[in-house]
Amino acid sequence: MARRARNIYKRKDGRWEGRYIKERVNGKAKYAAVYAKTYTEVKAKLEKAKDAQKKKQIPVCKAGSVTDMGQKWLEEVSADLKESSIVKYEDLLRCYIYPGLGTTDLSDITNDQLMNFATDLKKRGGKSAQGLSGSTVSEVVSVIAGLRGYALRHGYSVVFTTDCVSIHQQRSDIRVFSIEEEERLVSWLLSHMDETSLGVYTALFTGIRIGELCAMTWDYIDIEAETMRIGRTMQRIRSNTAGGRKTEVKIFEPKSVHSLRTIPLPNCLMPLFRSYHVPGAYLLTGKADKYVEPRIMHNRFKKILDSCDIKDASFHACRHSFATRCIELGFDAKSLSEILGHSNVAFTMNRYVHPSMAHKAENMNMLNDLFK
C-alpha cells in the first residue's frame, strides 16, 4: 500500500484507508478505520471520526455557577482551615468574586474574561471604586484558583487557568526605627513603665507580632527558664453568629506551625517580667479577665510615638527593627528565622532585615584592611 499521509494508506483493492486510535487497553492502542474511494474523502472522514472520538473520551460536564462552586469549595476546605482563614475566604467571595462572576458558569470562564476581571478589580474594585491593592487582587485570584482545582477534582470542565493573570504588587516602604529613634523610644518606655509600655518593650526585644502580644498571658512565660512560648494569637474577625455583633475578638493558635515557638528572653526583660508577673493574667493588663485587643494596642503605640516625637510607624515596625538589629549584632540567620516564627531563612532575610546605610558603610570599610 502506498502511504500518502500519516495514518492514511491506499489499499491494494484501490480504496483509501484512514486509521485512528479508538481506545487504549493496558496502555496498548486499539485502532479503528474508515474507508473511501479517494484520498480527500477518507481524510475528511478520518478527521470527523477523530473529533467524535474526542467527544466520547472527554464528556463535557459543566461545573455550575461560580456562586455554587464557591460554596461547595469552601465546605470542602473548611475542615483544614483556621476560623480566621474561613472568614477571609468568605469575605473575598462575597465582596469581590460573587458580584463580578457569581452567575457565570465556572466552565464558561475564559482566560480573557479572568484577566479583565482582575484588571477591573485593580482599577475600580472596592466599596468606593477606588481600586484594590495588588495583594488583595492576588488573594482573589488565589481563591478562584481554589475553585478551579475543586472543579477539576470533581470531573467538571474548566477552560481557564489563573496562570494567565499577572499582578504587579508594589511593595510598601518598610519602616525600621533608626538607632537614635529606638534609643529614644526605649528611654521613654523605661521612664513611663506600665503594662502597655512593657508590651512595646517586649516586642522591641523579642520581635513578636501584635496579635501574639495581645494574647500573651503569664502562663506562657517561664520566669525560671527565662523563655516565652508563643502558642496563641488574637484577632478581631467578622462574626457569623446570627444577631450578634459584626465582629468579635478571637484567640486561637497561629495559622502556621512555624509560629508555634519558644523564644529565649534577653536579660534586659527579666527584671521587668519578675516585677509585673501575675500568674494567669494577660501581660498587657495584669488581669485574667481583661485583655487589650490589637487595634487598641496599635492606637496606644501611636500615642507613645507621638510622645517620643518619633515619626509615624505601625506596631509591626518593632518586629522589623528587632530583626534588623539582630543581624547587625551578628545573629545567625537560622536562629533569627526561628525566633520570628518564619518557615524559612530566605523569607526572613528578604522581608525583615533592612540594614541601615551606616551599617552598609561599616561593612564596606572592611575592604580597607583587605590588602594591608
Quick structural gist:
With 372 residues, this protein is an alpha+beta fold. 47% of the residues lie in helices and 13% in strands.
Write structural notes for this entry.
With 372 residues, the chain is an alpha+beta fold. The protein folds into 3 domains: 2-57; 66-164, DNA polymerase, domain 1 (Orthogonal Bundle), CATH 1.10.150; 179-363, hpI Integrase, Chain A, CATH 1.10.443. The protein is built from 14 helices and 9 strands. It has helices spanning 39-57, 66-77, 83-101, 111-124, 134-153, 179-191, 195-206, 210-215, 270-276, 294-307, 316-328, 333-340, 345-352, 357-364, and strands at 2-5, 8-10, 16-25, 28-36, 221-222, 227-230, 233-238, 247-252, 261-264. The strands form 3 sheets. It has a 4-stranded antiparallel β-sheet, with helices on one face. Strand 1 (2-5) and strand 2 form a beta hairpin. Helix 2 packs antiparallel against helix 3, helix 2 (66-77) packs across helix 5 and helix 7 packs across helix 11 (316-328). The mean pLDDT is 88.
